[in-house]
Amino acid sequence: MSAPVLDPDVLDVLCPLHLMLDAQGVIIHAGPTTQKLRPDLAFSGMPFLDAVNVVRPRGITTLAQLHAAKHLKLHLEMAGTPPARLKGVLVPVGGGASIVNMSFGISILDGVRDYALTNADFAATDLAIEMLYLVEAKTAAMEASRKLNLRLQGAKVAAEEQAYTDTLTGLKNRRALDQMLERLLAAQAAFAVMHIDLDYFKAVNDTLGHAAGDHVLQIVAAAMLEETRASDTVARVGGDEFTVILPEVRDLDVLERIGRRIISRIEVPIPFNGALCEISASIGTVWIQGGRSATRETVLEDADIALYASKKQGRAQQTFYTPELRETANSTEPPKGRSSKP
Fold first, then answer.
1. pLDDT digits (tens, 9 = 90+) for 136-178
2. What is the strand order of the sheet 318-320 is part of?
3. Peptide bond before 82: cis, by omega within 30 degrees of 0?
4. How far is CA 265 from CA 228, 261, 298, in A?
5. Out of 12, 197, 240, 304, which one is annotated catalytic?
6. ∠ Cα 186 188 192 (to 5°)
7. Nearest CA to 195 among 225, 235, 168?
8. Catalytic site residue 240?
9. What angle do CA 152, 184, 231 make, to 5 degrees?
10. Tens of pLDDT along 71-91?
């Protein structure tokens, strides 16, 4: 019984990415998708091994070697650009003729992108298109998830920033201050803390109203940021109380200079609705030497004791904490801590 003759039209429907070869290995028909890959290439009449390079199995350069690899999975590369890397299988169909049926394999995404293929370029029973739909759906879902995660992360960062920020002045708040102090103490770092209280601020509120007070606090906050270092942290910790954390301080003169600048700057009258708000600043400073054992509570308490000493000694000055200040904090005599005036 003779082998049936394969109708190219049938092959174009069942396996549109194929090449039909005669007994001499010359291409006599190319499927529609095959032709779409190389629209400028005339496949008919072209030797198969000129049109397609067999990458694996290695060493196939003759028709006999090609026929010997029948039914094996072939790794192919079609001549021309862009590269068309395909999987294929050669099946004899009688009379020396053969069919090489091909597919993109795992490189189908590249094939669809490079050659603008659609579902019409694949057999109706080919699952490639369904796979592409799944990949596209997964890609779209992952992109949507990525964007959602970015929005959530942004919202989280904004919420955390808001939780550590004083809404009136834009400075850090008590929560942020406590967290930074804990980190510095855990690292046994060298740093300083300035506790700053505004003198005569209550008079501003009482005479000009809370709007004037809020305005003064905002001006003072901006001034403190300008007079401190970029590495320092300025926090508003109470109504008219501020705290500055100064990391990596190894010279007392640095603290004296910064304290003088802050006091001088805040003594400049602040205009508000035709009036002048006149205040000053008292500062209590504690200098933590690297390696010193301390707690957040004791550091802030020491700074507060030094601030109290500045208040008792006439305000508008900076006092550095010493152990003697703690002993005299409740004395009627002014504490004999080290103080500096602008």
1. 666 677 777 888 888 878 777 666 667 889 999 999 999 999 9
2. 233-236, 241-247, 191-199, 280-288, 318-320, 338-340
3. yes
4. 11, 6, 29
5. 240
6. 105
7. 235
8. yes
9. 75
10. 899 999 998 888 788 999 999
